[in-house]
Amino acid sequence: MSAYDPDGEMITRTFRVEKVWDEVLNEEAERQGISVSALLNLIVRRYVFVQRFFDRDQSLIVEYSILDPMLDKLSEETIVEAAKIAGSLLPGDAMLQRGLPLNFKSIVFFIGEMCGRYGNWYKCEHYVTDGENMFYLRHDIDRKWSVYISSYLSSMFKSILDIDTDPEIREDSVTIHIPNKYLKRAHDGGDTGIRSRYS
After folding, report:
1. φ, ψ for residue 133 (rounded to 5)?
2. CA 20 to CA 103: how far, in whole Å?
3. Tell me: the pLDDT tens digits for 104-156?
4. Comparing C-alpha atoms, which of 23, 2, 176, 36 is closest to residue 106?
5. 136: helix, coil or strand?
């Protein structure tokens, strides 16, 4: 068991919070249709999974409106080259920094949680069948962002599991198919995680 694979055991913790922040929490919980307790658990979850590492490292939060025109000025070849370099190094480092093994289960976590839910690179749908794992990644930027995502994740799969992928690139999405037979052959620590579904 780890912070990334909890067993569901809960504890009660009491703490003080500024009144004006409590008002914000109540407003946001009402907007999302959840309790303040549930909202606080989401906030703590984000901190445990992502934010504490962002605070330690040199990290930027970049809005789509800044990223989009930058990508527009770059050629697809340049984007692919930069994404391949980053994808071969950064995902594995991020997993090891969190104490995660370099296997498929950690990759599912990286794609769905770190890049998807908390990185806001895309919305991730992960489907598992008897034959394959499929990742459907939707975003609101443009095709060049699809090119970056595709090359970045392909490089990650090659670097960590020695699996070649051929993602389907569309204007606002990337689809990656991983045949389960490849996962069984990968050096995956005995746990492919293929029973998981992330959405």
Report:
1. -105, 130
2. 44
3. 999 999 999 999 999 999 999 999 998 999 999 999 999 999 999 999 999 99
4. 2
5. strand
Opening angle at CA 18, ends 17 and 23, nearest 5 = 100
Tokens 């930069």 appear where?
A: 82
Q: Choose the weakest-confidence range: 9-13, 170-174, 177-181.
A: 9-13
Tokens standing for 131?
């034959």
* Residue closest to 96 by CA, chosen among 119, 121, 117, 114: 114
The 3-state DSSP class for residue 92 equals helix
Tokens 């794609």 belong to which residue? 111
The pLDDT score that the predictor gives to residue 49 is 84
Domain ranges of the chain: 1-59, 66-185
**How far is the C-alpha of 163 from the C-alpha of 25, rounded, in Å?**
44
